[in-house]
């Protein structure tokens, strides 16, 4: 039961990552690429959480939490750089 | 049906729903024509899908393994707080680049974004002009 759901989850999230990669390469604008990277971070967090369930270990949640923080800071840094030409003024 | 198998059913359903919603969000990122529409897919469907996956994970560790962890709650609270902010920043970048003629987008039903008053720019954080709400001259 749970194995089938996990297999479906890994497959769906992997397919979602491939779609995000397509948008990352295709563009057409810089904002599209930032959005694709942000979505990739969200999907990778999902994969990490599913890995934690599959391996029955609670140690992967620190990685998920760190990736959530770093992904948000990275997105805001990209956006601030494009808006202002500087990240920390 | 024992309690463990009922918990497995719930967790499996949550994982399938969450992964399906994340897939729908990424498909929207590929499928939709302009950036303002593409923003909807990942910021709503993917965040909701990740919320379902995190609830499923919390239920799995609580119901099946009998341990209570707050990490899932932390991750979901953090994501739900930051997803609108990053979407807003990306939309600001898009508006700024449209106005600077560095990007173009297909004509949508909403048309071009309205020009802000006083020759200002919606996107950048320049000082408010005199006469616009929030200028510090007349306050």
Structure description:
The complex is a heterodimer of chains A (about 90) and B (about 140). Chain A is mainly alpha-helical and about 90 residues long. Chain A contains 3 helices and no strands. By secondary structure, chain B is mostly helical. Chain B has one domain. Chain B contains 4 helices and no strands. Chain B starts with a helix and ends in a 40-residue tail after the last helix. The chains are: A mainly alpha (about 90), B mainly alpha (about 140).
Which percent band covers the strand fraction of chain B?
under 5%
Largest sheet properties of chain B: none
Give, in order, the helices and strands of chain B.
HHHH
Helix content estimate of chain B: 55-70%
Q: If you compute it from the alpha carbons, what radius of gyration of chain A comes out, rounded to the nearest whole angstrom?
A: 16 Å
Q: Beta fraction of the residues of chain A?
A: under 5%
| Multimeric organization | heterodimer
Ends distance of chain A: 53 Å
Total number of helices of chain B: 4
Number of domains of chain B: 1
Number-wise, the strands of chain B total 0
Give the largest interface: A-B, 53 and 58 residues
- How many helices of chain A? The count is 3
Structural class, from helix and strand content of chain B?
mainly alpha
Give the overall shape of chain B, derived from the CA principal axes. elongated
Mean pLDDT of chain B: 79
Could you list some keywords that capture this structure?
heterodimer, A: 89 residues, mainly alpha, 3 helices, flat, B: 139 residues, 63% helix, elongated
Secondary structure layout:
The complex is a heterodimer of chains A (89) and B (139).
Chain A: H1 2-26, H2 30-54, H3 61-84
Chain B: H1 3-31, H2 35-38, H3 40-64, H4 71-99
Helix pairs in contact in B: 1-3, 3-4
